[in-house]
Amino acid sequence: ETGVTQTPRHLVMGMTNKKSLKCEQHLGHNAMYWYKQSAKKPLELMFVYSLEERVENNSVPSRFSPECPNSSHLFLHLHTLQPEDSALYLCASSQDRGGGPGDTQYFGPGTRLTVL
Amino acid sequence: GQNIDQPTEMTATEGAIVQINCTYQTSGFNGLFWYQQHAGEAPTFLSYNVLDGLEEKGRFSSFLSRSKGYSYLLLKELQMKDSASYLCAVQDSNYQLIWGAGTKLIIKP
Q1: Which of A41, A45, A90 lies nearest to residue B42, judging by beta carbons?
Q2: Is B16 an 8 Å CB contact of chain A?
Q3: A28–chain B Cβ distance below 8 A for any pair
Q4: Which residues are within 8 A (CB) of B100 and not within 5 positions of it... i.e. 6 or more apart?
Q5: DSSP state for residue A99 in the 8-state scheme
């Protein structure tokens, strides 16, 4: 496996379900990110982890809960979601997070989430 | 507030040249990134500019003017596979990427 992988690629869930999204990076990077991408809108940064510590949480509802057990893995735990949470959820990683080309983010293929 | 503006959609002809503009207003500046995203796929990194001027990389070039808060991505010898969305993103003083909504580029034969 190379780059950034995400599972599952597609997920359909009801509003009362609990599910988790998984991201794994094989690039030896120190920072990992969760983004939400909705149609015709800019990417919305949700969470940032640097060296396994959460450094940003952009006012995301508590029904989204991130977990970063080590520098290669990132999870997004979902519970009691709303239909408006349906979107493409993208994971990314970067070597560093301190300015410069080392902050170039590399993305996984995303999880297409549909909440019924 | 912080803002990135780019055209919603552009159309160009195979073999031609197209320029996609991006203007920005951000709290600080630590670099500007361009990404390509094909429908249903991950964004992929194209270019990074932090100094004024033109950076050329094969058929793609990216230009930056920090004083004008302006960048463009220039695509030459367009191919059908270049049909995609092109995302402009600026890294602000907190090292957070501020993203534009993307420009959908349609290539016609």
Answers
A1: A90
A2: no
A3: no
A4: A42, B4, B5, B6, B22, B24, B87, B88, B89
A5: S
The DSSP 8-state label assigned to residue A98 in this structure reads: S
| Rounded Cα–Cα distance for residues A34 and B75 (Å) | 29
B100 touching A, CB under 8 A?
yes
- Judging contacts by C-beta atoms under 8 Å, the chain A residues touching residue B102 are 40, 42
- Whether A69 contacts chain B with CB within 8 A: no
DSSP label at residue B96: P
Please report, in tens digits, the pLDDT of each residue of chain B (109 residues total).
Answer: 789 999 999 999 999 999 999 999 998 999 999 999 999 899 999 999 999 999 999 999 999 999 999 999 999 999 999 999 999 999 988 888 999 999 999 999 9
A63 contact partners, CB below 8 Å, separation of at least 6: A78, A79, A80, A81, A82, A85
Alpha helical stretches, state H, chain A = none
Instruction: Find the CB nearest A104 among B4, B30, B48.
Output: B48
Distances (CA, A) of B100 to B69, B91, B95: 13, 12, 16
